[in-house]
Design a protein that fits this description.
Blueprint: E1 8-13, H1 27-33, H2 36-41, E2 47-52, H3 70-89, E3 93-98, H4 104-118, E4 121-127, H5 148-152, H6 158-161, E5 175-180, H7 185-193, E6 197-200, H8 201-207, H9 209-216, E7 224-231, H10 253-266, E8 269-275, H11 286-298
Parallel strand pairs: 1-2, 1-3, 3-8, 4-5, 4-7, 5-6, 7-8
Helix pairs in contact: 1-11, 3-4, 8-9, 9-10, 10-11
């Protein structure tokens, strides 16, 4: 029997407030144009598009005290946290259409709070080229899209680390990072100090994606809420050029499909971020179309019936 999925709610978050390039604010519309709602509805999933959240404009200013646009970042993440929590409490799966990756602070803070309310364990899969574990002390740029994992683990400004009233939202042991291939020099020290569980591209090359995913999903069971934070720059830029921070040497199409299919096989995905899609840098929306294809696999699309 095909697996059933909870009803899905799209939450558009059209901002590049935490990014170093303009354009991620157009990501939600690019995903809609690429047919994300139609693709999931075609799989029998109840899809509701909640439209786009509103928030402050990007002032495009230099960093202050190590952060760019902190007040605006807090405003957008607060709005997303409330919207995500509302959908979770209604029994729906929030799917965040980003937007840059700083927004995961809001979406994952909501999921962590919902897990505390419902007694679920939380596992976060962070699919990304970057560890996103910078702080104001070590960031080369001040861009908050390089800091969300650190903020979620309690390292950062109180306005973000205590966004949900609890600090931290996550323990490092709850997150698995896959596809990492760009970590800033001082960020490497922080990652090691906090024992972040990272499956970088060298390790993927050495042992293969199947074994990596089996390890990353180990312990996920019926009591687990699985949150997937999918940064489109996780993918090799040869197949996904439409991102602001391309890093060569990422997963190819088949490796990415295997990641998504093995996540789908668990049946435990309860929330999803799709971030950093930048149509300004794309080629005829091919990156958005690839993202839709991969998200379909997260929702059970496969070559054969495997249940």
């Amino acid at each position: 029997m095909p697996r059933s999925y909870p009803p899905v709610s799209f939450i558009g978050v059209p901002t590049d407030i935490g990014a170093g390039h303009r354009g991620a604010s157009l990501g939600p519309e690019a995903l809609r144009i690429a047919g994300l709602a139609e693709a999931l509805a075609g799989r029998g999933i109840d899809v509701r598009d909640c439209g786009n959240l509103a928030g402050p404009a990007n002032p495009w200013l230099p960093p202050e005290a190590g952060y760019r646009h902190l007040d605006q970042v807090v405003a957008w993440n607060g709005a997303l946290m409330e919207a995500s929590l509302r959908e979770l409490r209604a029994g729906r799966m929030p799917v965040m259409l980003g937007g840059d990756h700083c927004l995961a602070i809001g979406s994952i803070t909501a999921v962590a709070r919902h897990c505390r309310e419902t007694g679920k364990k939380l596992r976060v899969l962070w699919l990304d080229a970057h560890a996103d574990f910078n702080t104001s002390d070590v960031t080369p740029s001040g861009n908050v899209h390089g800091m969300p994992v650190a903020c979620l683990c309690g390292l950062g400004p109180e306005a973000l680390t205590r966004l949900g009233g609890e600090a931290p939202a996550l323990q490092p042991g709850q997150i698995r990072q896959i596809g990492i291939r760009s970590v800033d020099p001082e960020e490497k020290r922080l990652v090691k100090q906090h024992r972040l569980d990272i499956y970088d591209m060298r390790y993927i090359d050495e042992v293969g994606m199947k074994r990596v995913m089996a390890q990353a999903l180990d312990g996920v069971d019926a009591d687990t809420h699985l949150h997937v934070s999918f940064d489109v720059d996780f993918l090799d830029p040869g197949i996904a050029p439409g991102v602001g921070t391309t890093v060569p040497g990422g997963p190819n199409y088949r490796e990415a499909q295997l990641v998504m299919e093995m996540i789908a096989d668990t049946g435990r995905m309860g929330s999803l971020d799709i971030v950093e899609l930048n149509p300004v840098l794309d080629d005829h929306n091919i990156t958005a179309e690839l993202a839709v294809d991969l998200v379909e696999s997260l929702f059970g699309k496969s070559t054969l019936m495997r249940d």
